Automatic annotation (TrEMBL):
Keywords: Signal. This is DUF3078 domain-containing protein. Residues 1-18 form the signal peptide. The keyword Signal applies.
Length: 268
């Protein structure tokens, strides 16, 4: 109840020019048409199996094919076996199928899908297509932008398969429903005078999952700050905190750092 109160207070305190570029979730908007972006995501998460932390590294390349379609390729590395090793990769696509644009707001919906492959041993209950499991995910996301505030939510279904030579454990559920809710606000500049102005956004994101076979679930909260420089370079800093969990997880709380640079009009 305390966390629901925090969300309610955020809603009533935020005044209705924002950018819908969230840190750990995807909005319904796509990468700019004809653009190519390179991103390096990093996280340092608490290791629940032994003392210490797990370092994850995820280089990504995103191509904005047109205003409605984008694709992304990712690689997943971590140091769980006493060295930074490549664990797998994935491909992601998002298609925006609905858009209503107004002078100071817009509403968009998109369908997305992901396929990932991984060679890690399977030790945890949560299904993680971005670094731990082989499988697919498909879902829908909706995003509302009103002046300086962006609100986004998604729901998806995921199914995990065997990880290369590691069979998926019979005692774990391999089907899950994922859900997210995100809210972000443009804090600076108060008034635009040039595209070269540095934008500062603050965000609050909620990420959860429920295993369909047994009903076990988790819910994380992720506050973050984001800097956008010259409308091309992006720096994200976030902290993930577990709010609720009934699963066995390898990692939980930790910090995120993402660096991204976008090249415009590359493929036009």
């Amino acid at each position: 109840m305390r966390y629901l109160s925090i969300v309610f207070l955020l809603f009533i305190s935020l005044k209705i020019n924002a950018q819908e570029l969230f840190v750990v979730t995807e909005p319904a908007s796509n990468a700019p048409a004809g653009s190519l972006s390179v991103r390096v995501g990093q996280s340092l998460l608490e290791n629940q199996m032994e003392n210490g932390n797990v370092y994850n590294l995820s280089p990504e390349v995103t191509w904005g094919i047109n205003k409605n379609l984008m694709v992304r390729a990712s690689a997943y590395l971590n140091d769980m076996n006493n060295g930074l090793d490549l664990r797998g990769g994935g491909v992601y696509a998002k298609y925006r199928f609905f858009s209503v644009d107004d002078l100071q707001s817009h509403f968009r919906m998109a369908a997305f899908g992901r396929y990932s492959w991984n060679s890690s041993a399977i030790h945890q209950e949560p299904i993680d297509m971005m670094g731990m499991n082989t499988g697919f995910e498909a879902g829908i996301v909706a995003t509302q932008l009103i002046k300086k505030v962006a609100i986004s939510s998604s729901v998806s279904y995921g199914q995990a398969f065997d990880n290369n030579n590691y069979k998926f454990p019979d005692n774990l559920g391999n089907n899950a429903v994922n859900y997210t809710f995100s809210i972000g606000r443009l804090m600076h500049p108060k008034k635009y005078t040039s595209y070269k102005q540095t934008n500062i956004n603050t965000m609050l994101e909620f990420v959860g999952q429920t295993i369909t076979e047994n009903g076990r679930s988790y819910l994380d909260i992720v506050p973050s700050i984001q800097f956008i420089i010259n409308s091309q370079a992006r720096i994200d800093i976030a902290y993930k905190k577990e709010l609720y969990n009934s699963m066995h997880r390898i990692t939980s709380d930790g910090i995120f750092l993402k660096l991204e640079y976008t090249f415009f009009n590359v493929t036009k």
